[in-house]
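Case study: Protein DD3-3.
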Amino acid sequence: MSPLSCLLICSIFLHDALASIHLQNPRGSGNRLDEPNRERRNRRRLFDSQANDRQGYNVGNLYYYQGSKLQVEWTNQHSCGGDNANCEIILQYMCSNNVRDGAILTTIPDVPSRCENGNCDTDIKFGMHEDFESYKRCRLRSRNFGLFVGDIRMNRDGRARFTRQNTRGLRYGYECPEERDYYPYWHPTPWRDIAVLTNDVSRCDYYKAQSENVKGRGYCYIPLELLVAQDRRIRIPNNKADCDKFSFPANDPNGVKGVWKVAPSHGIAAPICQENQYSRDNHNGNGINGQTNTFNWTLPNIEEDNCIFRIRYNVTSNDFNGWETTSEQNADPLKRVDGAKVPLYKNLGFDSRCDASERGFLLKNDPEVKIFDGLDIGLKLAVDIRQAGRTFEDRSFRFEVRPRPAGIPADANIYNVNVRGKRGNIVQTYPSTEYDFVPADLHATPDDYTHLQWTGSNTNNNGNAGQGLRGTDRHNYVLLHEQIYPEGSGYTGPGVKVGHFGVNYPMNLTGTSLPLDMLEKLAYLKPAQLGGEMSELDDAGPYFDAGLMKAPGPGTYHYMCSRNNAFTNRDQKGRFIIHPTSPPAKRNLNSELEELLQILTSKS
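Here is what the predicted structure looks like once written out:
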């Protein structure tokens, strides 16, 4: 069995239903780039998000230290961790010398002569993630004909840039449409897996074994120079047998031959695979615990200046077993009215596909079903075959991974503390969020370090609500007033307990035991800001880096942003909960709820 065919069935599930995903931390770009309006102007600039034009932040460049801990946060529109649909969330990153956000909104050309010096990879005015060669090979590579497409009439061209979700083969930067839609992909990619979050953990062994982190990929090598020169006259084989037969010109003994090669794995650990967190349908907000769903990523021990983070959201309907559905269930192209050959009848109480067909129970666009036998009244269903399984995506802006500063032990915990959200009320910022700190609750010990860093924008929509200069994001960290009322519940820590989430006035810092230079640095954004109008931080820059700081002594420390604790962006507050020893393990709320449900069910 070729490397292609052994993955056909396993990659089917990566289509999903009506949904979208938005990366909140690190900031998802959604293809935006410093645009002064709420809608993005070029949805095809870098990648295919499949989301509406309100998606994304304007800017988002940060850096992280090797081995530091970054709380990834996202919101997804449709359910995960529930019974309404199957859901998989894939977290990945890639690094390359030429990865960049770019300086203009125009999509990078796929014709080298249209770029400076005839090299689009190095023309820095265009944003770029995957490179030109990657896309050229995808554009000319034969698509995977073993995949389920239902009754969608696919483009006759038959190359990997055409998929069930992208039947027109539209180009989004240099992204390969087939790679985007299917995981794990059979061909070599630059993407390194971080984690797979799934509704079905029985798949985890498969994901870990098939990840490109640990398993190489086969491909048919044809020189890039020939691909550029001949372009559409060449179809790159996607399996060894056809690659061994390839010759250009065809049947020419002196022609260029295809060479089947196996690219090595990325040589890193298999991805983490774990159960998805719960989120409900049609919400695009917080999870079951009232907080944004998260994944705590430990940054790799690499030194890279140009990296991108990617999150993909794959949801598929439970009407049929997508995991075992292949091209054999595709509709007959000459009899498209019959719909796809998926055996829906097995789950719907019919004895045969023929019986189901007579009543309209077929997998096709907008079927009209008759739910009562003998009653000739149909109900039309809003079914779209392209959305019986569908993938959505968001990507970060460029970020760096830097070595730890001298004197910081390799085993010391470094926690990244960032800001998510943008200027405006909830309607104006959606599907992004209003301001908040990430993480809002940081559990650490006095031996740990924090890296406080944020980036904002000077080009938010001028009509968005907020304090200070119109169109700008600004943030600071001000210690809150002494505790006034007791905590309602939860860990409060030993010793001093400073501040409370329910107040609006900062602490009178006269006589505080905490270092004043550190507090001034965080309140007035020193040393980056040394003067100017700072009552609402207007003259501060749109980026601030406090650097590494040792965590304070044991206790609970509440803080706020003095600029944004307004009614339109109420409660931009956070807290450090400093434990004398290791903080308690994070609770698994999904497992606890399942155990509680089992107890209640048994008692009933």
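For the exam, be able to explain this: Residues 322-387 form one domain.
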